[in-house]
Specification:
1 helix; 0% strand
Length: 115
């Protein structure tokens, strides 16, 4: 008699468990269906997206190379201007300084001579 009661109780527990499991199984089925749709969509759209990413990457690399070339050209131009202008400007400044010193000496000589 005890075995029969245990068996009936076990069957009741199993029935309750199965009843509680039905919504979980149905939700799992819906989730798997959505996941399948998502993978189908990704399989269709992903190649286009990857092509676009490759194009963007290629364009970015080309733009970076062009910018590096421009920056290099600007740096070379700045060095050239600096070497062509700096030297003459320093010479001109030295000449003007020497001229100013000569004028100062000349003026000092005449001022002392008048006194």
């Amino acid at each position: 008699m005890v075995w029969e009661m245990v068996l009936v109780l076990l069957i009741l527990v199993l029935i309750v468990f199965v009843i509680l499991l039905i919504p979980v199984v149905l939700e799992l089925k819906r989730t798997l269906s959505k996941l399948s749709n998502l993978t189908d969509t990704l399989n269709k759209d992903l190649p286009e997206i990857l092509d676009n990413v490759r194009d963007i990457s290629k364009n970015t690399n080309q733009t970076s190379e062009k910018l590096n070339n421009v920056v290099s050209d600007v740096a070379d131009f700045e060095k050239k201007i600096s070497s062509e202008i700096k030297e003459p400007a320093l010479e001109a400044a030295a000449t003007v300084a020497g001229l100013m010193q000569g004028i100062q000496t000349f003026v000092t000589y005449f001022v002392k001579r008048k006194k």
